[in-house]
Give the backbone structure.
Amino acid sequence: MRLNDEVLSATDDHRRRVLGVVQELAADGSIELQVGPRQGDDELHTFVAGLDVAVLPYRAGTHSGWLEMCWDLGTSVLVPGVGAIADQHRDDTFRRSFSGAADVDAALAALLEARSVAGSECPWGDAVVRGEARRAQLAQVRATHARVYEQVLGRHP
């Protein structure tokens, strides 16, 4: 687990409790804890690309830039089933959702099994393939918008 060193100076009760739990887990060897300054983009991408699974502890949200970064880098994601975040990239070999603390173990195990059964580090395709697919999808969206605007403006029946 990587912890931004700014969290060490947290003053609100919730962050202090979370920090306490993380420090307890690190003390008993349950997790490897790395503490350091905020990473630059290149360093962050290298770190995330090297993870087996990124756990995104969201409480709410409509979209996750972190989930998109993991998709681009080929890193699996474990994310709570909240908001539209849970619907991003529905491929279960890439992303698994959980709805409560009791579900985390099962969701993580299922995610890791799905990756190993698929037989590769990145069973949902590499970043180049996903980038090409995303560009094709964006071209289709732009073409559809253009058709709709032309129809609304009365240029085409």
User: Anything to note?
Assistant: Helices lie at 13-27, 41-49, 65-73, 104-118, 127-152. The chain is about 45% helix and 10% strand. The two ends are 57 Å apart (CA to CA).
